[in-house]
Each structure stands twice: as C-alpha cells, then as structure tokens.
Amino acid sequence: MPIKMHKWLCMSLVMLSFIACDEYRIYDTYTPVGTAGWEKENLVHFEFDISDTLNKYDLFIQVRNTNEYEFSNLFLITEMQYPNGFHVVDTLEYQMADAYGNWLGKGFTDLKESKLFYKEAFRFKEKGQYEINIQQAMRKRNQLDGVAIVKGISDVGFRVEKQK
What we know:
Layout: H1 3-20, E1 25-32, E2 38-39, E3 44-50, E4 57-65, E5 73-81, E6 87-95, E7 112-122, E8 128-136, E9 149-150, E10 153-162
Antiparallel strand pairs: 1-10, 2-9, 3-8, 4-7, 4-10, 5-6, 5-8
C-alpha cells in the first residue's frame, strides 16, 4: 500500500473514532440557512423524539459563522413545543466574539462553530416528539426594525446530550 494511501486511511480511522465515541449525543443536526445569509423570517425547525423522562439533558443551539458576520453577539428567539402542545418561547443573547473581535467559536479556517447552551440539566416532562423553532432577532443600534438578512451565518444546529 502506498504511503500516502496509508496516511489517508489512518487519518480516516482516527476521525471516525472521534465521531463514533459521542456516547452522550441523543440528537444532533444542522440546517443551512441560505447562501445570502439568515433571513429574519426564516425559522430553523427541528423535530426530535424523547423516550426518557428520568435523566437530565443539556440542550445546545449550534451556529456556524464566517468572518462576514458583522456583530459580536447574536440574539435568537426560540420556541419549543412539547408533545402535548404546550410551548415555551425564549429570547436569548449569545456572545460570539471577545472584546478584541476574536471569534469564540472553534474551527481551523474562517468558518467557526459555536456550541451555545440553550437549556442546562433539562428534564423532559413527557415522552414523544418535541419541536424547536429558532429565529434570528438581530437589530442595529437605534433601529426598531430587525436586520432583514444576517450575513455570515451559514448553518444553525440543535443538539441534545445526555448530561455527563
């Protein structure tokens, strides 16, 4: 086997082992928000099933952004709907960059990935299908209308982890 092929195979196995060892993951998916940016009316929708109401879970909103993102924070409106129809709406703010303008997300290129706490030590009250909608709620200073399209955000994700 050529050396380059051997190196590629070894790297693939290492990467696969990192992915396979995610024993706490219950649900984890991303949705692209569009090539032009994240439109204000574009709700990102996720559906997931829960069968365990005894254990606690950590819930995360995940965001991938590039250097085109113009803000140091991110405002979101979330709505979680329970299987019985009950729903909870939250307005959230996340810090995306430090005081020097450095992105807080992780990544080797100009694409950074942020894993943002949505709910910590959360216990699902009933079994069944849950839904969550996430909407950007960015505004510029001294402007009442929200930003129609937020540039620099490529994907939004949602993750449910069994608490460690």
